[in-house]
Every structure is written in C-alpha cells, then in structure tokens.
C-alpha cells in the first residue's frame, strides 16, 4: 500500500462519520406538556404526582406548562420603567408554583412556560378599567416612541430574573386577547398623530408589528440568557403568511430564538398536511403533537395513532434539519390525561421515535402491548386500539371539518360556527383538492341527500368497527386482568354509544341547515324523525351515564334538539 492510498483511507475515516450521518442516526429530546391547573389545583395533586413519576420513567428532557403557564408569573414581577403596573398575586399561590417548578429543576428538566400573547395588563384591550395597560400608559399606543416594545422586553427580562428556574417562554399569537382572528393589535392607534409621516413605522406592514413584538421579547430573553420560542400556530393561510414573513425577517437578522412547530397548521386535524412554516424555516425547533386528544376523546375513550405520528415525524425531520425535540401534550382539562390510559401508546411511541424515528412501528406496538396486556392478549388489543384512530377520524370529522364540540356531542350553535370555521379553513389550506373541497362546500353551505348519506355511511362504518372491537375484547376476556377487561369494555361501550348518537345528530344538523335555507315538507318530516330519535337516545344515555357525562350528556342532546325545534318553529311562524 503506497502512502497516497494510506492517506486517502485515513482521510475518509475522518470525514465519513460526519458526512455520512443521516437523520436515521440522530436522536431527539423528548418534551411533554400539561396545563397549569395540574400543577396548581389541589384536587389534582394525585395526578401531578403520577405525572412526575411518568416524566422520570420516560426520561423526559423538557416540560411545557401551558394554559397560563407564563401568565401566572406576571402577577409577581416588577417591570422596570413601568411602576404603575402593580403585583397582584398571593404568597401561597407563588410558593406552590415555585415549589412545582423546583421539582423539575432539581431533576435536570428544562422548563418552558407557554401561553397566548401578546397580552397586556388589564381585563382586555377595550377595558375602561383604569388599571388596563393603555389607560395607565396611553402614550404606548403610538409606536413611534417604542414604549410598547420596551414593555414587552422588560416584562420578559423581569419574568426570568424573578423565576430563574424557567428556561424559556413560549408564545402563540392567535386566539389571544389583543391579537385574534378578527382584530389585529386593536389597542394600537392606527390613526397616527399629526407627525405620523415622520415616524419610523410609517411603512410598517402588518407582519412588521409581529416582528417588532417578537424582537422585543427576544431582547428580554437574551438579556437574561434564556430562550424565547414561538408556537407556529395558524388557523388560516393568511395568518401563516403573516407569521412566516415575521419569522423569516427574524432569521435574516440572526435573532436568537426557538420555534415550536405543530405537526400541521392549527389544531390537530389528521386531514391536514404538514405545517408550512416548519417547511420554510431553519431555526432550532420542536415538533409538537396532541396525544391526549383535545378534539377526539380527551383520553376518556382511546384514540391511538402511532403510525400517523411516525409518518409526520419522519416527514418533518427530513424537511427540517433543525428539529431537535419531539413534544406531546399529555393533559387537557382536569384529569383528562393520556397517562395510565390507552392513549399513552401515543407518548410511548413518540419516546421510541425520539431514539429511532425509523423503528418498525409494529415493534413499538408489540413491546408496549405485551408489557401492558400480556403476550396472549397483546395481538388482539393492538388490533382493537389501532381501530380507534379510524373510528375517531370518521366520527369527529367530515373531510377534515370538526363536527363535534371539543370531543363531546356538539351543541347547535357551536356546531354551526365550527363547521363554517373549519370548513373554510380546510378549503383554504387545500385549494387544489377540488373533489373534497366540493364535498366540504356542500356540507357547509348546501347539504344534499347525498351529503347526508356520506356522513351517515362514515358513522356506520365507525360503528361496525367499534362493534368488532367489542367482540374482539370479549374473545380475550380470560387473558386480561379483571380491571383491564372492565376498563377497555366500558370505554368501547361509551365509544359505541357516542357513534350511535352521532348518527341522528349529524343528520339532524344537516336537515336543519336544509330547512333553514331550502325548506321542503319531506325534509322537515325527516328532521322531526331525527329529533324524536335523539330524544329517545337522551333518555337512554341519562340512564347509563347521567346528565353530566362529558362525552355524551343527555342534557346536551336535549338542548340540541330544543334549539332546532325552536328555530324551526320561529321560521315557520314568519
């Protein structure tokens, strides 16, 4: 071997381990999220203790406290330069909060506080309360003086100095008091003073206001040597474009910040494609999933989707090399949690994908199910739980439109608004999907007998799968513990009842829309039949579950019926 060959071999040995590395070799951090109430509500202390044990069991790297995680800190900080804003918190609450944060810090777990922003002190941005921000500092409405941006910078800095346990603050921008789907920074004076043409912001675009807000928060975080992250959450493409313009500008400036990408735009919807902001930015980021199920059962019934999680993880990391963390919501409200419920497979799978995104998903299912159900029952339980993904997708949606109310049987007003909202959203996200968009438009604006048949067919298919699962579980009764058999049986029976109620519920809704816009005597008869069927079901559900069951409340069913009957009667009297 001559020296040139030897030199080449040595050079390759040095280079190949780096240049040959692929996403298949990379491991990711694991983060879990829960609502602030879990940490603060004394009735949930048992759940909080369980969560801490699970965090250690899964070797979690980061916790994300949402539902007011950052807002609670604002009660206890003094903001330099803004002496009119007074502390309002109480010492007992503060001690409890700091004690909870300390546990995570003692165990080396990163803490991110999450919530909607840009918030301001006071009841809301229209408040006449003398303590609301723009009443205390009216000059902040005029952006030329920079006072509003200074407030956000100083508040961020004060948060981290007062709560040194915290590593990052995380914001989402839509559905917030000052920045929502309809009003864009309405507290700011759009009519500038007479010198407006001299101001530095005279040519600001809408996105520029977002940019300057985030830049101010970044300055405050950087001064404290902490992190700011932005949740790339948007209901509509126009929101996404504004946010993307701002984020690209921050990247151009080389600002130091993080991103948290939901795996798809807006709230979880399996019918949506990938998050476009994730595809077009390269800032260090997390990829976020909802494992507990805000919109599909809240872990009160199972919705298990490891296959979809893996597909979206693989797609994300192949298109964005800056993703470093895989994250999942584990709690919603009260004790609605995936821990010790069947939806825990969602987190278990994500934890396995964090170590190997390309692991055989069947191996993940098998390892989890054998440990939980035993070797004999595991294969059947895997089939049963896999079906819950398809059942949920058929019952909670129509072509990606939400047709229930945060997992429960929808009220008429909520359903009407949500169908319109998510119907428009789906069409806007997928303008080229002309076949499904035609069905969505018909469902939203002009339902027909064919649309009704399609919606019913989806639910009949879901019902058949649910009944197959009930039979499958019965076949392995002797292989399951008494407690496990009873748990899965009860949840599947609730799921079956939910699907049964959803059949006349969605038909009644669509026939109500027809009667409202294009009434016929034949449709009115069919609508009346649906409503009578729902009344009978409400009585059955009341006997089984009581009037207060979250998923299938008899009161909710009867209210839905009453609302339709009253509106039909009103329209007929005109």
UniProtKB/TrEMBL annotation:
Signal peptide: 1-20
Keywords on record: Signal
Annotated protein name in UniProt: Glycosyl hydrolase family 20, domain 2
Organism placement in taxonomy: Bacteria, Pseudomonadati, Bacteroidota, Flavobacteriia, Flavobacteriales
